[in-house]
Fold these 4 entries.
Entry 1:
Amino acid sequence: MSLFAYPKSARLLRRREFDRVFKAGGSWKDGDLVVYCLQNDLPQARLGIVIGRKVKRAVDRNRIKRWIREAFRLHPEAVPPGVDLVVLPRNAPSLTWARAERSLLKLLGARARDLARRGTP
RNA sequence: AGAGGCAGGCAGGCGGCCGCUCCCCGCGCGAGCGGGGGGAGGAAAGUCCGAGCUCCGCAGGGCAGGGUGAUCCCUAACGGGGACCGCCCCGGCCGGUAACGGCCGGGCCAGGGACAGUGCCACAGAGAACAUACCGCCGAACGGGGUCCGCGAGCGCCACGGACACGGCGAACGCGGCCUCCGUGGCAAGGGUGAAAAGGCGAGGUAAGAGCUCACCGCUCCCGCCGCGAGGCGGGGGAUCCGGAAAACCCCACCCGGAGAAAGACCAAAUAGGAGGACGACUCCGCCGGCGGCGGGGCGACUCGCCAUCGGGCCGGAUAAGGGCUGCCCGUCCGACGUCCUCGGGUAGGUCGUUCGAGUCGCGUGGAAACGCGCGUCCCAGACGAAUGGCCGCCGCCCGCAAGGGAACAAAACUCGGCUUAUCGCCUGCCUCUCCUU
RNA sequence: GCGGCCGUGGUGGAGCCAGCAACACGUCUCCUUCCCAAGGAGAAGAUCGCGGGUGCGAACCCCGCCGGCCGCU
């Protein structure tokens, strides 16, 4: 399997899985994205994306979803293994591909720093 | 060449890297890997109509409710489409003093019924739907007043006279007449109001007028011809008494059972016990209403709205209440608790439904067109937290001298047929106008 | 997927079986007061969401859009 693959096993598919991350996971956010994270006891990370009907046109919802997915897929080095992620866009009209990529890397980096600080007090 | 209108079509192309989904082939015990192929739209949209498909309902009778509306045709069907008719609007031409009429072209129309009924037509105006009489017109008919004229028997005065006869003037009365005024009356032509004034216009007629009469037009009925038909043309008769609005209620004709792929079918954990029938018992269960939930505004007291009938509690009420018969009524059936017997059903999850169809393209053929028929050809998304994307290069289009920038509206969710709406730019055909050249 | 409701001055809201578009708060001017508030008098402020249609006349009736809100499964 290729390094940048995105098979079905790397996605969140059930409502229960989303609810688990929302209830028990931690969240990191900036002006463009919100990321919820939770350990999942699996060898790989999984991604779920939530875009509400507030983004009115289906074309825009699909595009944002694809940007977030590409950012996740093209940067496996930034994604910790065995973690479920749920990503939501904020301020959707001004979002671009470059901003989505930068924001996701930044938030995952912030999560890694927070865990390291908590792990070695 | 430019501008505008109408009709139709396209929806940038090629390549590389990474990635997704489905199908086929091969390898592998398997996760999967390799190769090949398919992979958003003209509107996929809004969900405004019509169908297919699926389940539910359907003893009977009645009443509601919704939709459509000239005619002929197309279609599986439609509230869709084509053609045609009629009204209206616009432009041009012709006739006419004008009102108006005729012809041609284009556009538009939800276009059955207003003597089946109920209601509506504000303001203005005299009068607004079994009409009306403000200004006005008339003076024929009836009654009355006035001036004038004529006549009448008398009266008074004057004049005359011997007498008879005869004359002039005056006032009142009576009768008649012309004119005029008033009342009763006749009229609806004209003015004025209004969106609309109870056929239009012309002539005769009349006191003045009026379909009162007549010609033409409009209306309606009958007949003839043309057309499948709505209707058109011509002739004759009648009345010209009956406005508008049914996108007010309504009437007539025709159509409509309900829900919708979260439809539905099958397989099927864990947990919990359910359902049906028979028999017995009869006031605790069940039922209804309220205390409710959500949202907007306000600092707040408060205020303005929307929604539901799932479970528990409290208060009050009615008792055969209630429920089913997919809106309601009649009618009809069921109806609590206990015992016994019988039987499996359903949730999570998965599979199917699920993509070959009123299909695409080409040729021929019928038709004025919508569209139909015949033959050949092709297989063209099938997902379900939901696939078409990201990055890059070259070419093409638009803006700009250039650097550079721009390229719409918008993404399938069971499938079709329409309608409506959004849309940068380009191409093709036809028509109109302007300019240039020959 | 199915179904329903609402768009009216700055704000909240009547009118919606057609006939000059109420009302309250707010705004402005004047009076009152030393000043403010309260009170009194007066004034301004509306493409009735948009586009068509019917009709003499449309916020109202009909059709098509746009925007917002809610419910069921």
Entry 2:
Amino acid sequence: MSNAKVLPLLEADGQGVAPCCPPLTERPMTAKEAATAARMFKALGDPVRLRLFSAVASHEGGEACVCDISDVGVSQPTVSHHLKKLKEAGLLTSERRGTWVYYRVEPSVLAAMGKLLVGASAAV
Amino acid sequence: MSNAKVLPLLEADGQGVAPCCPPLTERPMTAKEAATAARMFKALGDPVRLRLFSAVASHEGGEACVCDISDVGVSQPTVSHHLKKLKEAGLLTSERRGTWVYYRVEPSVLAAMGKLLVGASAAV
DNA sequence: GCACTGGTTCGACGTGTGTCAACATAGACA
DNA sequence: TGTCTATGTTGACACACGTCGAACCAGTGC
């Protein structure tokens, strides 16, 4: 259940992860780079998903139980659906712990997306 | 043709612009904040738009003529359509200069989005 | 004024996406 | 074992989105 293989924006590089794409402002993205990065932006392009993601990211320890964050105005199947989308996009990972399922956000993904936007100003 | 009123993620604060929303990791976003921010992520959630945006952002001076960036594999009407979407999302501004139309990216928008993702680490 | 080039808008088509109700599954507890 | 709660999955629906061709507007140059 490591994070490397499920994060399309990142690639394992031995001791950690590296961004898939150069900063947007550095050079025009190739079609492949754009497709990879767009998948993640798209995942955050829904208000419900953004709220869910923010709820998880801001929760203590960077992880939250579904039961803690499912109050976003949609039915529970829809919440589950969106969480799955976020997981497929590589933004969240999930883990079952007894009765409840916990979702957690990978800080490295946030950092990679930040770098994509602001270029070199976001230090490692 | 100022940038303040057309940038949903930002709000004019006298001498510049400020982010609309707190970092994702700070606290759960409200529905309103999520709707605002999601609009921009959604705009970048399409590979063609992402390439167009990157092409403009990486062009010298942060601006580019449509003729310079319309080689992304779709028809010109589609390019125009996507540029309009990016403009509506507040990521680009356009200006006609003689025969050609130039699009430019607002650096402050990129910085605001970066902050949204990585919190305080992305300085102004 | 007239033709030409660069961009945008319009109308239409097929596909993708968000949503829900209903059902299925996993673990806890008795 | 059986039942109850917590999540995930399935199927179906309406709506939004990306794409294109055709028509339309804005400047330029003759």
Entry 3:
Amino acid sequence: MKGGKIKSRKYHTIQEYIRKRIQVGTYPVGSYLPSENEICGQFSTTRTTVRKALDELLKEGFIEKEQGKGSKVVERRKSLGLLTVKGFSGSIDYEVRTIITKGPKITQWDPIIPFTLTEEEKKSDCVYFQRVRHINDRPVVLENNWYANDALQVIDSEEFIEGSFFKTLSQAYFIEVMGAEQELRSIPASQEVAKNLGIQQGIPILHISVRFHTSKQGLNLYGDLYCNTTDYPIRNSYFL
Amino acid sequence: MKGGKIKSRKYHTIQEYIRKRIQVGTYPVGSYLPSENEICGQFSTTRTTVRKALDELLKEGFIEKEQGKGSKVVERRKSLGLLTVKGFSGSIDYEVRTIITKGPKITQWDPIIPFTLTEEEKKSDCVYFQRVRHINDRPVVLENNWYANDALQVIDSEEFIEGSFFKTLSQAYFIEVMGAEQELRSIPASQEVAKNLGIQQGIPILHISVRFHTSKQGLNLYGDLYCNTTDYPIRNSYFL
DNA sequence: CGAAACAACTTGTATGCACAAGTAATAATT
DNA sequence: AATTATTACTTGTGCATACAAGTTGTTTCG
């Protein structure tokens, strides 16, 4: 073994230990982590090191800190600058239902992807699936997804936790999204898009091409989304 | 004086000191800050405190750290998840020219803003200006901007540094963008938008409503953008 | 001359300690 | 009973120190 020398950074092992326990639900969202001093005891270290580990988890959006109280586990999606659909009037309840229309299967890379694939990805087969997201039982987003089969096995659609691919990656494979690049375009709905979203051909559609970078070496997730923003605009927010 | 008790946090004063020197160009983009030990000497403190200050600047996107070399000043825009126009083929050079079409002036708040104004903003007058961004001498983005006059004076268009409003805020007023909320829609071009962007009415246009939060208390910047993404898609990326 | 070793810097990780400041439940006082 | 003070926790800030690890230029050696 030559490559892959792992520096033993104490704060990093603590960080990974806590991260996994958050992912599997040992520390559920809303709960508080053990106090810094308790963690010190468990790992025979000092608060400086523990605080460094917690700082990293803070930066990654897993926890929030409250002086005098503790470190609280938070819903991570909110801390990412991800695009999300927004309810019609902003306050009414609405239910998002995701239907997998083309099951995960091995295909060729689609040339519609506007990002340059890595050499490893080009050489690999590609896993593809398509989903339609419904809000209040009306189709709103048509989403195509690809990833290199060399980097991750085919995950069966029945395996999806709560129908969510990202949730499955996190909880079952410990893979997290660490960043993304996106390209946004406004285009007229093609025949296929119009059919899937139940709208007229030519209606303005928000086209999003996205590449997600993950915590797993070599694994990028590619997305090609078509959003009908007539009733449900796309939201995005970020904060330092 | 009652309100506004400022806790004396040593790392915070160091952080602000360095931030200002970056903003005014004493530490230009690409240069290296003084070493941690030098800063320790200047402020009669320890590396722990200096590193905390640098950590904050790192989180805010002002610097990058390179082990063995130093802390480098970087172009901050890149670290923010801001939307930017992308060149046609991705690699060709293109020049963005911004023309102010309606000079900064005091008006009423425009009801098109889809965010809830604060009470202070509602009570205040509103500064408005409109710009058109050209790429390779063709109009691509029509942009309306508003902010509360109570929070910031009217800045004359001649005062804009390199034609950029945000650059002016940073370098002349030390105000930085700390976050944003955005709403994206795909809409057909209205008559006014079509006229300003030199396109046919009805062509799909990317409509972006944005609220920027700033480092200045009470100051939000509101934007209403219409982008012709036919030749120049909008880019956005974020990383943890 | 070229390569290896070294020295002098930089940032990264870690220990150990002390006290400030915020929170929450309990005890003491009014 | 209601208010106040205390106490025991939590995280936040800061000092002093040590060594690891990465970078760069210089010196030494073959």
Entry 4:
Amino acid sequence: MENSNKKTTKDERLALAVKESKAPAISRAAAILRLLGKSDSPLGLQTIARELGLVPSTALNVLRALVIEQFVSVDPDTKRYSLEAGVLTLARQWLGRNQFSNIVQPVLDRLSHSYDVTMLGVQIVGLEHMIVVASSEATANFQLRAQIGSRFPALISATGRCIAAFGEIPRSVLVEKFSSLRWDEPPSMEDWLQQIEQTKQQGYAIDSGNYISGVTVVAAPVWKSRDTLSHALVAISIGRRNGMEELKNDLLSAAANLSRQLCGE
Amino acid sequence: MENSNKKTTKDERLALAVKESKAPAISRAAAILRLLGKSDSPLGLQTIARELGLVPSTALNVLRALVIEQFVSVDPDTKRYSLEAGVLTLARQWLGRNQFSNIVQPVLDRLSHSYDVTMLGVQIVGLEHMIVVASSEATANFQLRAQIGSRFPALISATGRCIAAFGEIPRSVLVEKFSSLRWDEPPSMEDWLQQIEQTKQQGYAIDSGNYISGVTVVAAPVWKSRDTLSHALVAISIGRRNGMEELKNDLLSAAANLSRQLCGE
DNA sequence: AAATTGTATTTTATATATTGAATACCAATC
DNA sequence: GATTGGTATTCAATATATAAAATACAATTT
């Protein structure tokens, strides 16, 4: 879906990670897991190796190790590989231990009910991606749903503007990454940079139909410590709505509250 | 919890996996991930290495690779490692793609409502473990909760008796593994083997307070194909209850139904 | 039934991940 | 402010994971 130019980009990132790393098997394993995760059906050895630019025998070794560790299962008849339930266990442990994902839930529930919007709690990881770690859905008939665990590029939509505004990313990097973002209705670079400036002043960001046309997204930053952005609260609603002003303020103060909780232990 | 005799068992399984495997870094990575998952707080390099019987420099290489792959995060100040949200993404993909976890949910919901019991859908992985992949909770005031992703030894409780009965496990292996199981009120080996025989005949298994005292567990097997046991439906309730007979029949036919769906494509 | 084409798997020489010691760092304690 | 005990990290020798070719296997076509 995202990369249909498989031939050119297939191993670019992976090849780099393998070269750099002193444990290349792990990068290969991660790539295989993500590939299996994306795939609709179980995959054979050759397919996996080809897709990721790996030597089949190496891929086989990695797969066997992953099978032993119960992250991958293999059908003994067809020799096709797919993700195994073992990956659930890690996720559950993470969810249980993660402070933000636990304290954010009631906040999301309250906001989604009050304003009838879908609320997300996202975690910013490495200023490269954001991952949805908690959600509370609106009651309205038609609403958007974002599954927990979904991964997005860091700079997209309203949350992206927050990250750009508060993440201390050099302008040159912003400009470079901007070109790789996919929007329904892309803003011009000037508009985007301007909106980032505005976000710095207002303390929150808005995406009015850029990312998904017809959908308004509001995001407010949450800080792990005084100067490290770690999460964001995101409100998603269909179409333009009234009561937005109130929602923004509420969102902003909720985010500030959470920041206080995360900072002060 | 499960293994408090860390000193003796710490590296036993891992050491074996590393020796056997042609991609030992992956076994080490898995061990580190599971250790971090179990831990209540972030861990330092030394602690991790010591706990798993790894050389610190090797552990460092593995950890750095895991950080790059966003499965682990490291606090740059304290140099402590913990699980990162990346593990969620795999879990979500698994859940979305897994046929059983998707079709079982309405079945669990119906049963839990009808009989006011907590229902679980578990997946049997490698006849070594079972993993809870779906659940539906009872409405009664006090009920047990088993989180999705929880892992149990394959032979424990009612589900364990199902696996023992239908998993084609040699008697010698059963006897051997029995000794490592932890129950609140362990059955005698004779009783247990007898109950397994009974399970073979009845088609379902019951655990009356053995695993957790005061808790009754009923389990029925689900088959991926005519002769491979893959999942189970589990009903959990507090105390002895009436209407059990009805529940058993309903559970059994629901399990048979699911088997039919999984087999026939 | 033989040949072909596509798989998965084993094998073996070599490039490299692993190791254990050496070093660098940091925070207590003296 | 030097010393100690604990970290994380780098480094160079060597045990080993990896790659490419050889082999085995399975399914389809001739």
